[in-house]
Amino acid sequence: MSTVLNTIGRCGLVPVIKLDRSEDALPLGEALIKGGLPVAEVTFRTDAAEESIEQLTSHLPNLLVGAGTILTVDQVKKAVDAGAKFIVSPGFNPTIVDYCIEHKIPITPGVNSPSQVEMGLERGLSVLKFFPAEASGGVSMLKAMAGPYKDVKFIPTGGINAENLNTYLTLPMVHACGGSWMVKSDLVAAGAFNQIVTLVQEAVFTMHNFSLIHIGINENSEEEALQCAQIFEKLFNMPVKNGNSSVFAGKSFEIMKSPYLGSKGHIAIKTNSVERAVAYLKTFGVKTLPETEKRKDGKLKVAYLDLEISGFAIHLVE
């Protein structure tokens, strides 16, 4: 899989944007970055698309920009010359796909049938667009269609919104989702970029679904850890469970038998995808501590961040 497609997978959500005026491109791109989603698929349905892509790629190097609704090879050439880093087509056009493969341009063609999936497999593609997602049967259709193709990932697009986003993203075969509800054309035309920032942030937090799991407390010995846990049990009816390196009081408190990360302890935060959460947090300069990373089947599942908040380390858990 290409670096570009890996980046899209870590972002998890691709805003599909339609620009009627190229002068709206930069403020929209800045809104996406500010909202925590540094990726954009600019549809080639308007005369401003080519200039908009050029503006975005020239002035916002941290924004990953691609071109969507590509229907001809000529459009591919124009989009790539303007700076597009990936191509998205609504259907599986062999001429377009073969041209992109020949010129090493990442492409996700649209599919909604097993025959089209196999056309992609025949050409070595491992990421395909599932379009139109909801109209083609949604999650049920995707599960059924993807069943025989364990090595293929999909980017559902079409009918995706805040309400159904995570029903797709939690599926193992879903690489990312495409959507436009946070970057609607009427908001762009009205210059409502602050509102777009808010909608993008809401979409990002919906995707990550951050929530508190437990608070970790550092103690110096097993005896002290047990004493602490027993207080929680006595006062708040939180059962004590003694483990190898810590003692739990209910599910809310983990008392460490010896000091671990964080001068006071740690805060464990649950998220739908640690990999996507880490990619998002990197936009704020926050990274993981590599020695704390735990993976399963190649995917990052657990990691501590390289920061403390009021003396507490932050522990991400999927």
TrEMBL record:
Pfam families: Aldolase. It is an enzyme of class 4 (lyase). Its EC number is 4.1.2.14. Keywords: Carbohydrate metabolism, Lyase, Schiff base. One of its GO terms (molecular function) is 2-dehydro-3-deoxy-phosphogluconate aldolase activity. Coiled coil: none annotated. It catalyses: 2-dehydro-3-deoxy-6-phospho-D-gluconate = D-glyceraldehyde 3-phosphate + pyruvate. Pathway: Carbohydrate acid metabolism; 2-dehydro-3-deoxy-D-gluconate degradation; D-glyceraldehyde 3-phosphate and pyruvate from 2-dehydro-3-deoxy-D-gluconate: step 2/2. It comes from the Bacteria. NCBIfam families: eda, PRK05718.1. Belongs to the KHG/KDPG aldolase family. Homotrimer. This is 2-dehydro-3-deoxy-phosphogluconate aldolase.
